Amino acid sequence: MLQINHIHHVAIICSDYQKSKEFYTEVLGFKIENEVFRAERQSYKLDLSVNGLYQIELFSFPNPPVRTSRPEACGLRHLAFEVNDIEITREQLVAKGIDCEVIRIDEFTDKPFFFTSDPDDLPIEFYQK
User: Fold this and answer.
1) How many domains, in total, are found in the chain?
2) CA-to-CA distance for 86 and 112, rounded, in angstroms?
3) Are residues 28 and 49 part of one domain?
4) How far apart are CA 47 and CA 54, in angstroms?
5) For position 29, what pLDDT does the model report?
6) Are strands 31-38 and 43-50 parallel, antiparallel or unpaired?
7) H or E segment at 93?
8) Cα separation, 36 vs 112, whole angstroms
9) By CB count within 10 A, which of 37, 63, 80, 112 is most buried?
10) Quick one: 76 and 52 in the same domain?
11) Torsion of CA 129, 73, 66, 116, to 10 degrees
12) How far is residue 23's CA from residue 52's CA, in Å, rounded to a whole number?
C-alpha cells in the first residue's frame, strides 16, 4: 500500500491569468507564495497557499482548449473548501459580486454547502465544518 501523506497541490489552467489571479487572491484570499513567468512557454505559474497548508498552482498558457467542467462532467468534479460559517462566506462572496448558488444541506452529513464558479467556470464548493 502506498503511503500518501496529504494532497500536495491542485493545478488549474486559466484562460485569463490576471482575472483568475485576482479571483483566487483578492476574492478567495489565498496568499501568493511564488510567481514566475516562463518566457519559453509564454506561461505564468502562480503558487498560492491556502492557510499555509495546501497549494494551488495557477497556470496560464496561450489559447488553452476549453474543457467541460460542470460537476457531473467526466474529470475533475469540483474544488471544495471548508469554512467555519457558510452564511458569512456566501454573504462575503456575494458582496464582491460573485454569483453563488443557494445554501443547501448535504443529505448524508446534514452539513450546509453551496457552489460558485471561478472565472473559467470551474465549480467551487464551500462546505461548512
Assistant:
1) 2
2) 7
3) yes
4) 10
5) 94
6) antiparallel
7) helix 86-95
8) 37
9) 112
10) no
11) -30
12) 18
- What digits encode the pLDDT tens for the residues 16-28? 999 999 999 999 9
Q: Which cell goes with 60?
A: 496560464
Q: 69 and 113 in contact (C-beta within 8 Å)?
A: no
Neighbouring-strand partners of residue 60: 14
Which has more pLDDT, 92 or 66? Answer: 92
Q: Which of 85, 69, 57 is nearest to 120 (CA)?
A: 69
Provide the pLDDT confidence category of residue 70 given band limits of 50, 70 and 90.
low
Nine-digit cell string for 57 = 498552482
Q: Are 82 and 127 in contact (CB under 8 A)?
A: yes
End residue of a domain, out of 65, 84, 116: 65
Q: How large is the C-alpha radius of gyration of the chain? A: 16
